[in-house]
Amino acid sequence: MRCLAALLLLSTSLFFLPSPSEAQFRWGGHMVHAARSFGGATGAGLRAGIDVPVMPLDLVASGEYFFPDCPQGMSGCGLQGVTLDANFRMLTPLVRPYGTGGLAYRRLSPGGEASSQTESGIALGVGIDASLGTLRGFGEARWEFVGAPRNQLVWRLGVLMGLP
Fold this sequence. Notes:
Number of domains: 1
Strand order of the largest sheet: 1-2-3-4-5-6-7-8
Structural class: mainly beta
Shape: elongated
Helix content: under 10%
Mean pLDDT: 84
Distance between the termini: 45 Å
Order of helices and strands: HEEEEEEEE
Number of helices: 1
């Protein structure tokens, strides 16, 4: 019983230990995939973030452009987006799982004569990152509750660099 209590206390404390105030600004790029847009659209994005010192928190902003396959006989379709997120991470040394949540803005251009739509909503998900010096790789899956194009699963895979 004491062993179980000690293990629970140790694992819970990983969320509350102060984080090192190393390279706080990070920037990089990622590949992104939206599962429901145009039958699945893949794109590329840029990401910038700040590691909040003394807290297991990262504040990140991402901009994305997708390369969809337009429906038959249509041209000019597209999907772009911006997300603003807070990532709550575990304080483990090299590989850190995190939960993420924030706002998502999407602009959908269905193509042809149809007009573009811009909508916003919330997004929730999970991710994991791995650090090697000032380089950090990450992967995340998130559900975006945005009407344009529709609520959907979005995943990202990328690399961030910190300042030395």
